[in-house]
Amino acid sequence: MNTIYPVVWSNNKVLLIDQTALPSRYTLVEISRYEDMAKAIKTMIVRGAPAIGVAAAYGMYLGARDIQTKEREIFLKQLEKVAEILRQTRPTAVNLFWAISRMLKTAYESIGTVEEIKQILLQTAQQIQEEDVKTCQAIGQNSLSILPKKTEKLTILTHCNAGALATAGYGTALGVIRAAWTEGRLKRVFADETRPRLQGAKLTAWECVQEKIPVTVISDNMAAHCMQKRLIDMVVVGADRIAANGDTANKIGTYGLAVIAKMHNVPFYVAAPLSTVDFNLETGDLIPIEERDPSELYQIGTTIIYPDGVDYYNPAFDVTPAHLITGIITEQKTVKPEELITLKSDLSYH
Ligand SMILES: CSC[C@@H](O)[C@@H](O)C(=O)COP(=O)(O)O
């Protein structure tokens, strides 16, 4: 079950759950203009690769809606500008670019008046959103066959938030966890806190509490200890962009987790829709890595926690090499990273 929808189309505007306010406040932000959607993506009011894609698709419609022309060519030219602003928001999650390309392709291929094209764009954004929920549910179902075979219930560790909040609903890594919970296979989730923005502690833990899934939050540097103590049966994480060879960009800290999982023989799975695979990139070192403001590191609330005079480096993502990944769980099936290429045919929007 899942009743958390981070992006909702209602009364001609988009409502976003403000993920920067959770878990202390549950508030909705209304978005009626594409510029505000771009800002919401950049400031992480909405975040998580598939959710960013859905938000950008609605952003494209909002931008299209405000274009004041009946001339198709002028309309398409202005829509390209909307696309460019939305593309500038976050560089790593490929779902953003995938959704924008799909919306643009739809506009170019639609016949009819500008007003009719606008309506088709709204329908396409809604379709992207509906497809994503189904995709996540399929990922959850496909994961049931790869869950470690044990008579006892499983403890699964996850990093960051790849849940309903990070998708259109249900989640990818948390979709796997939801499916295992529903099947009675799950004992408990271990959620990495996920410095510096704490998506694990704030968002994954919040989602688990909503669904009454037992959750233990640990700081990131406790994961190795937990694996050494054999507290963890499996690791499952989401992805922001997967290269053709299976190298996977995900929230900073994922790579370290994969290294220690390998060291302790704990299976390490990536759960992601095919819209997160970028077959244009041969290997993970070509994936652009977002660097965010250093205040995310040195400031907790309004308190500065580092001394003056230090330098900062704040990459938001890292790349886990394919050889550390046990399998990639997609909506079609679970594959070894080197088999990912066999699923290529479905990807017409990159
Ligand atoms: C299903 S979401 C997968 C990833 O997007 C998620 O693991 C992640 O890294 C999110 O990063 P964020 O910076 O919070 O957008």
From TrEMBL:
Pathway: Amino-acid biosynthesis; L-methionine biosynthesis via salvage pathway; L-methionine from S-methyl-5-thio-alpha-D-ribose 1-phosphate: step 1/6
Xref: InterPro entries: IF-2B-related, IF-M1Pi, IF_2B-like_C, Initiation_fac_2B_a/b/d, M1Pi_N, NagB/RpiA_transferase-like
SUPFAM superfamilies noted in UniProt: NagB/RpiA/CoA transferase-like
Keyword Ribonucleoprotein: no
Enzyme class, first EC level, given as a word: isomerase
EC identifiers of the protein: 5.3.1.23
Catalytic activity entry: 5-(methylsulfanyl)-alpha-D-ribose 1-phosphate = 5-(methylsulfanyl)-D-ribulose 1-phosphate
Binding site for substrate: R47, G48, A49, R90, Q199, N250, K251
Site (Transition state stabilizer): C160
Record keyword Nucleotide-binding present: no
Pfam families: IF-2B
Active site (record annotation): D240 (proton donor)
Matches recorded under NCBIfam families: eIF-2B_rel (TIGR00524), PRK05720.1 (NF004326), salvage_mtnA (TIGR00512)
Function, in words: Catalyzes the interconversion of methylthioribose-1-phosphate (MTR-1-P) into methylthioribulose-1-phosphate (MTRu-1-P).
Protein name: Methylthioribose-1-phosphate isomerase
Organism listed in the record: Crocosphaera chwakensis CCY0110
